[in-house]
C-alpha cells in the first residue's frame, strides 16, 4: 500500500507564491496544506486561501469537463462534451472569424497575473490580435512601464537578506500585504519581518492599518492625493539637501530640472492637498533619505488613480534621491538563476511575444492608451457594444471574471451575452462570466500543475509538482499550446506539449524536471549596484529624473499631480448629495478578488459584502453595525453590510469589490447588488496609463429600506 506523503510545492492562490507543504494520504488525496518553515521565501507563512486550496480542488461544483451551452446564453443549460469536440469548436470559430474579419476580432482575456500569464499575451500576439484584455492598466503595469522608462528595470524591495543587509527604513505605501496575504512575489510574513527589523517605518495609507501600530510615521493622506504627497516628500529631500549626492551627480540625468520643477511643491502645498501635516511629510521624507538603506513596499493604492503613472514616477525619483537604487537592502534588480531559459516577461519581454504582432495589427488595438500593453478594458467592452472603433466577434476568457472585477460589469455582461459571436471561458467554477459563455473549459488548479515557477519571484525559481488530477481539467497553457498548433502558430509555440516546453526551459541547466524538482529551489547569483558597470537602459544611460522618453512622447517629463475628477476639491457642488469619499479594492484576506465566496471555510471568515466607515460618521447618520445600507454614487447604487471602523478617517468610506453569491441562481448569482465596481463609471482615466480612479469617488451612505433589505 502507498504511504502518506508530504511534498513541498509553491502556492498560486495569489501573487505571494509561498512555499507550502502538501500532505497526501495513502490514496493520494490531499488532506492538509501547511506552511513550510524551511522555505527561504515564505518561512512557514500560509494564509487561509493557501490552507484551503484543496477545498477548491475537490469542490463538488468544480467544472471538471468541457461544458457546451445547450440553450440561449445565460439560460443555465449545459452539456458535458469531450475535449476534442471543444477544441474543434474553438478552432473552427477562430479560423472563421480570422478569415471573415481578421485576427483583431478575436480577443484573449486574462485575470490577474497567474501561471497562464506566460502564454496569454504570447498567444494573442501570435494570433495577430492586439486585443489582449487584462487588468494591467489598474494593477502593477503602470509602475512597471514607468520603471522601464525611468531606469530600464523594475525595482524590488531587498527584504530577503540576500546581501546580509536588511533595509533600515521600510515605507509601506498603498498596500496591506501584511494582513491580506501576498502580492508581487512577496508574502505578508516577509514584509512584517522587514518592518520588525527596520529602525524606522513609514506607513502611507488612508486607513490606520495594523502595521501603523509601532510605526514611526503614519501618513493618513486623503485618498487620491498620493502624487501630491510624493511631490512634497521630494521637495523636502531636495531643499534639505538630504539626497545621495554621489548617486545624483554620477548616475542621474536632469537633477537641475527637477530641482527647479519641485520648488512650488512645498510640504505646506502637499498638506493642503493631502491633509497630512507638513511637518510630518518633511520628517518622514528626511527619515527615508537619512536612514538608508531604505526599501518600499507598495500596492494598488497608488495604481488606481488618474495620477497613477506620475505617482510612480515621483516614487522612483524619491528612491533615487534617497540612494536606494540597487543598493543592498534597498530597491534592487533581482538576478534570476543562470542556466534557465527565461519564462517570465519580468526577466525577458520577448516572452510575451510582441515580436509576433505586426505594427499594422498593433495599430488596431482597442485602447486610447498605447503605453499600457493590450486593450484598455473599459474602452474594449464599450466597443463590443457600440462598435466603435469596431466590434470584436470572439473572446477567450482565461481565469478571469470581468463581469465582477471590471468596472461597469453590466456593460461587460451585455458585451458577452448580446454582442459576441463566440465566447469561451476557462475557469474552475460557473461564474457570472462563465454563465454567459458558449463553452466553458475546466481549468487545472495549481495543485494539478507541473511547473518551473518563474514569474514574480525572479530572484529564485521554485518547483511545483503535479499532485492531483480531478476529472478532465487541463492546464490553460497546455490548452493554448494545442490551440496554437491547430491555428498554425508554431513559430511562437514550437514546443510539442507542456512537458516539452518545461524541458526546453530547463535545457541549459542540463537538468530534467525530476532533477529540478528534487532541488525545489534555485537562486540567482545576486549582485548590487550593477549600474556602476552597466549604466541604465535609458536614452541618457542614466537614471532619468527628467524623462527623455516622456518628453519625446509629449508627456510631462517631470511628475505633476492631477486632482481626482470627482472629489471634494474638483466637484464641491456634489458634496451635499455625496458627502463621503469612496474607495474600493482593498484585499479581503480569505478571497482573491472574485474568488473564494463558494469555499465554506473562507466564506465563514467573511460572510457578507461590507462597507467600512468611521463610527462617528455612522452614528451621525443613525446607522448601526451590521445594518444593510445603500452606497450611492453618480454612477450607481449597491448594498452592503455596515462595518463601523475607526481605522478609517472621518469622511472616507471603503466598499468591497467583486462580490457575487455562488449559492444563488445562475446566470447572475445576484452579482449586480453588492459590488463596489458598479459604483464607478468609465469616464475618467490616467491620461498616460488608462488607470481608473478607484480610490477616490464621492458617495452617499443611507439605510436600505426595509422592503429592499428583506429582498436582499
Ligand atoms: S499569500 Fe497567496 S501564495 Fe501565500 S499562501 Fe496565501 S494564497 Fe498562497
TrEMBL record:
<dbReference type="InterPro" id="IPR006657">
    <property type="entry name" value="MoPterin_dinucl-bd_dom"/>
</dbReference>
<dbReference type="Pfam" id="PF04879">
    <property type="entry name" value="Molybdop_Fe4S4"/>
</dbReference>
<dbReference type="InterPro" id="IPR006656">
    <property type="entry name" value="Mopterin_OxRdtase"/>
</dbReference>
<dbReference type="GO" id="GO:0016491">
    <property type="term" value="F:oxidoreductase activity"/>
</dbReference>
<dbReference type="InterPro" id="IPR050612">
    <property type="entry name" value="Prok_Mopterin_Oxidored"/>
</dbReference>
<dbReference type="GO" id="GO:0018818">
    <property type="term" value="F:acetylene hydratase activity"/>
</dbReference>
<dbReference type="InterPro" id="IPR006963">
    <property type="entry name" value="Mopterin_OxRdtase_4Fe-4S_dom"/>
</dbReference>
<dbReference type="InterPro" id="IPR037949">
    <property type="entry name" value="MopB_CT_Acetylene-hydratase"/>
</dbReference>
<feature type="domain" description="4Fe-4S Mo/W bis-MGD-type">
    <location>
        <begin position="4"/>
        <end position="61"/>
    </location>
</feature>
<dbReference type="Pfam" id="PF00384">
    <property type="entry name" value="Molybdopterin"/>
</dbReference>
<dbReference type="GO" id="GO:0051536">
    <property type="term" value="F:iron-sulfur cluster binding"/>
</dbReference>
<protein>
    <submittedName>
        <fullName>Acetylene hydratase</fullName>
        <ecNumber>4.2.1.112</ecNumber>
    </submittedName>
</protein>
<dbReference type="GO" id="GO:0046872">
    <property type="term" value="F:metal ion binding"/>
</dbReference>
<dbReference type="InterPro" id="IPR009010">
    <property type="entry name" value="Asp_de-COase-like_dom_sf"/>
</dbReference>
<keyword id="KW-0479">Metal-binding</keyword>
<keyword id="KW-0408">Iron</keyword>
<comment type="similarity">
    <text>Belongs to the prokaryotic molybdopterin-containing oxidoreductase family.</text>
</comment>
<dbReference type="Pfam" id="PF01568">
    <property type="entry name" value="Molydop_binding"/>
</dbReference>
<keyword id="KW-0411">Iron-sulfur</keyword>
<dbReference type="GO" id="GO:0043546">
    <property type="term" value="F:molybdopterin cofactor binding"/>
</dbReference>
<keyword id="KW-0456">Lyase</keyword>
